[in-house]
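Handout, page 2. Input:
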Amino acid sequence: EYLEKTLTSLFKLDGVEDHTVFISQDGSHGGVQEVAMRYVKGAGGKVKHVFNNMRQNHADKGDQAAVHYIADHYKFVLTHVFDREEGYDAAVLLEEDMQVSPDFLQLFRDTRPLLDQDDTIMCVSSWNDNGYKAMDLDPRRLFRSGFFPGLGWMLRRQLWDELKDKWPKSQWDHWMRVDSQSQGRDCIVPEVSRNHNIGVEGATVHSSAFTSRLQNIAFSEVPPKPFGDLSYLLKAKYTSYVMDLVQQSAKVSFSKAMESKGGFGAKGTVTRVGYIREDWHKIAERAGLYVSQWPRGHFEHLVIVRKG
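Output:
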């Protein structure tokens, strides 16, 4: 059911026929195979159905088996596209429980040159962990983040060449966020996500998480339109922009920020709150951001929040 919905939203997009779509199946579920083959037929070779032949047996891993199988599958997909097929210098990876926005492909088309122009950019993602509906979000604005978002993301072949010989056995997305992989590089992210999680239950998602967080993430439904000049995302320009914001801001103490009302200053003002990593979850909860032990969506450990 999830795969059908994901593929339906993907194949509605203008220009999808210009790209090769790989449907990678991990396992032998007949229903998944049936859905995949419906899209393969009549696509003239532009849709390919492949099976994960690098799958290991992780039955002994207990409740950690799922994250091992997922890591295996990602390794297979990337190996197949970049090492077994020919002619692909970049790929967008999308999981089977995602609905995509009308300008999903536009985002990746327009940002693809940035990966060649700026070697401090590691990937482009269509997902903003902090893109909640309650925020003041601009659907046309993109930003840099040192935190790897995953969930609908583009990489170049060169990045895979770096990673493939040390690909992890589990928790691949957390591994991507470790300094030895990111090496100080950033991902480009839209303020308003271009995919929407439709999987109420999944290998790493439970219904409680969907209800409390994922359903409150804003999802772009604007029609495709070029994003325009994206040179503001190049490292030097973006760093200058962030430094200007910092210089304009008024300092708010941590204790003031923890107050129930007015902790971040009046609407329309630029304020900054310092934190230590151990206290980040308190700031995140107070600001209505993704609550975790590490700041998601940060640039050089600074998280920009525009309150609605």
